[in-house]
Automatic annotation (TrEMBL):
It comes from Niastella caeni. SMART domains: Elp3. Keywords: Iron, Iron-sulfur, Metal-binding, S-adenosyl-L-methionine. Transmembrane segments: none annotated. Its cofactor is [4Fe-4S] cluster. Gene3D superfamilies: Aldolase class I (3.20.20.70). One of its GO terms (molecular function) is iron-sulfur cluster binding. SUPFAM superfamilies: Radical SAM enzymes. Residues 121-334 form the Radical SAM core domain. This is Radical SAM protein. It comes from the Bacteria. It holds the Pfam family Radical_SAM. CDD domains: Radical_SAM.
């Protein structure tokens, strides 16, 4: 494995960049022995669920092996990084915490997918739901750009109905986004209180309005975690990218108060050509480690929304650097204390994409797409609800970018 080196000068500048790193809250990573034991227990749990639901010994072993093979293909090996937050272990943003009913149901869904692909194909395990069109940011890469800051489409009742419809299909995890979902904090709290009885809830935010009190209220309502967008570890560059003079300080504060409230925390960063070419990847991981988050998600820029018709797609050399970072941070022993790195492009280019089949994206106008980055409108959920229908129509199930469904 080729390694990427850290520019310590940049990291030192970052450490003095105006945020307080004192009294850090632990990210919940257990020691090595416990980590291995927990991973072993999770695999036993999967095997036990396979016995319960598949029953035939030949099928149990075959499907179990297939699932472990898929998991290893996603991470390129045995991924053992894991975090304990509020009684549950998390190894990914897109799997509910273990142990939980939602986790077991995700595994059940995957087991059935292997044995009865047609039966499970129409049931997404998680959705991204954009609850508002309002947003105080003006981000360079915004994929909701065309919908922003217009009259709201969803009423609170529409949102509750949408959740209800997807929960009838046993959706297990819901990520609330926008616009900026925290501008609608009162509705968001009510919706999470309703949703969290059956599904794990996450909030995707720029950090706006994430005060200590709001973080505690989110936690009390049943929210499990937050994903905070920070697109550079140098405050001025992040603020420039987000088109807002205070977005960096708001985002860093959001991480801090969310951690203190007992929420799982993740950073999301848009890996632009410039960001990668300037050697910012590893310093960013250093920054994320200092903030004490559990996960970092790197998203590839795509030509939609504010980036439409722009030359933003990564070239082979950028992708190679991202893949090296992904392997290094997740598997090399010297990066054991760094947050887990999610880079979807890694598995999408090898085994296909999970969006469309396992998830859908509902934008702030109510249009249902395969994912936030592939706008493949299938139907409008608001029209559907207001026409009094109680079952969901056929959804988009294809990935137009990577072709293959994993
Ligand atoms: S990317 Fe998110 S935070 Fe940025 S302008 Fe768009 S909706 Fe707002």
């Amino acid at each position: 494995m080729q390694t990427i080196t850290v520019d310590k000068t940049i990291t030192t500048i970052t450490a003095g960049a105006g945020y307080n790193l004192k009294n850090k809250v632990s990210n919940g990573a257990p020691g090595m022995v416990k980590r291995l034991l927990i991973n072993w227990a999770i695999k036993c749990n999967i095997f036990w669920l396979a016995i319960l639901w598949l029953r035939r010994p030949g099928t149990i072993w075959k499907v179990y092996r297939k699932m472990i093979k898929t998991r290893n293909a996603i991470w390129d090996g045995n991924m053992t990084k894991i975090y304990k937050v509020d009684g549950r272990y998390h190894y990914s943003l897109y799997a509910p915490g273990w142990p939980s009913k939602a986790y077991n149901n995700v595994i059940k869904r995957e087991l059935l997918r292997h044995t009865h692909p047609d039966l499970s194909a129409e049931k997404p395990s998680f959705i991204f739901l954009a609850i508002t069109r309002k947003c105080p940011m003006r981000c360079e890469h915004c994929f909701e750009w065309d919908n922003l800051n217009q009259k709201e489409s969803f009423t609170k009742e529409d949102l509750l109905q949408t959740v209800k419809l997807y929960q009838q299909q046993e959706v297990l995890q819901i990520h609330f986004s926008g616009g900026e979902p925290m501008v609608r904090i009162k509705d968001l709290l009510d919706i999470i209180a309703f949703t969290s009885k059956k599904s794990e809830c996450w909030v995707l935010t720029s950090g706006f309005n994430m005060t200590a009190q709001n973080a505690r209220l989110l936690k009390q309502a049943g929210c499990r975690g937050v994903v905070v967008s920070i697109d550079h570890y140098i405050p001025e560059l992040h603020n420039l990218f987000r088109g807002h003079a205070h977005s960096f300080s708001m985002a860093v504060q959001a991480v801090d108060v969310a951690k203190r409230a007992g929420l799982v925390t993740a950073l999301s960063v848009c890996g632009t050509r410039q960001f990668i070419t300037q050697g910012s990847l590893l310093p960013y991981m250093d920054f994320a480690r200092q903030l004490g988050v559990q996960f970092v998600q790197v998203l590839e820029p795509v030509q939609i929304g504010h980036y439409e018709n722009q030359q933003v797609l990564l070239e082979e050399t950028h992708i190679q650097q991202l893949e090296q970072l992904f392997l290094q941070v997740n598997h090399a022993p010297e990066y054991r204390k760094y947050p887990t790195l999610l880079y979807h492009g890694f598995h999408q280019r090898r085994i296909g994409c999970f969006s469309g089949s396992r998830s859908v994206y509902i934008d702030s106008a109510g249009d249902v797409h395969a994912c936030p980055f592939c706008h493949t409108r299938s139907f409008n959920i608001i029209d559907h609800i207001r026409s009094g229908q109680h079952a969901l129509p056929q959804k988009e199930n294809q990935c137009p970018r990577f072709g293959r469904i994993a």
